[in-house]
Amino acid sequence: MKKTTTVWLALLTFSVSLMDRHVVHAADGDAQRGRTIYEKNCLLCHGPEGKGDGQFGKTTSPPAADFTSAASQKKTEVELLATIENGRPPTAMEAWKGQLSGHEIQDVLAYLKILRERR
Ligand code: HEC
Predict the structure, then answer these.
(1) ω into residue 48 within 30 of 0, thus cis?
(2) 69 in a domain, yes or no?
(3) CA separation (Å) from 18 to 28, 64, 65, 115?
(4) Ligand 1 binding pocket, CB closer than 6 Å
C-alpha cells in the first residue's frame, strides 16, 4: 500500500515536471530567458504581468498593450511577432528587430504567451 502510494507520487511529480517543461518551451523560444529580456526591455511599458500597466506604458497614448485583453488574445503568434519586430508606428511601440537578436525575440515571445494565458 505504502509502496504504491510512493510510486504514484513519483509518477505524478514526473508528469507535473513534464508539463512544466512544456510551458517553459512554448513556441521555439525559451520563456525563462524571455522573462529576463522582458523585464529589462518591456516591463516599464507592458507591466510586470503584461497588463499594459507599466509605469511608463500607462502614460503613453495609446497606452501599452494589455496582452491579457480580449483583443490581444485574438492576435496570432505571427501577428505578435510582427509587432515586436517592426513596432507599431506611430505608437510608443518601437521596432525591436536589430535591438534584439532573432533568438531573443523568440524567447520574449514565448514569455508573452505565458503572460497572456494568465489572465
Ligand atoms: C515605450 C513603451 C513600450 C515598450 C518599452 C514596449 N512596448 Fe510593446 N507596445 C507599446 C504600445 C504603445 C503598443 C501598442 C498599443 C496599441 O496599439 O494600442 C504596444 C504593442 C505591443 C504588442 C502588440 C500587442 C497587441 O495586442 O497587438 C506586442 C506583442 C508588444 N507590444 C510587445 C513588446 C515587447 C516584447 C517589448 C519588449 C521587447 C515591448 N513591447 C516594449 C508600448 C511599449
Answers:
(1) no
(2) yes
(3) 17, 34, 31, 20
(4) 41-42, 44-46, 56-57, 60, 62, 64-65, 72, 75, 80, 83-84, 88, 91-93, 96, 108
Domain that holds residue 110: 24-117
The CA 10 to ligand 1 mean position distance, Å, reads 42
What's the CATH code of the domain at 54? 1.10.760.10
30-83 per-position pLDDT tens digit: 999 999 999 999 999 999 999 999 999 999 999 999 999 999 999 999 999 999
User: In the Cβ-directed half-sphere of 34, how many Cα atoms lie within 13 Å?
Assistant: 24
User: Which pTM value belongs to this model?
Assistant: 0.83
Residue 92 placed within a domain: yes
> By alpha-carbon position, which residue is closest to atom 40 of ligand 1?
42
Confidence of residue 20 (pLDDT cuts 50, 70, 90): low
Residue nearest to atom 37 of ligand 1 (CA): 42
CA torsion sign for 61, 39, 94, 105 is negative
Ligand 1 atom closest to Cα of residue 88: 14
Question: Given the CA of residue 67, which atom of ligand 1 is nearest to it?
Answer: 26
> What is the tally of structural domains in the chain?
1
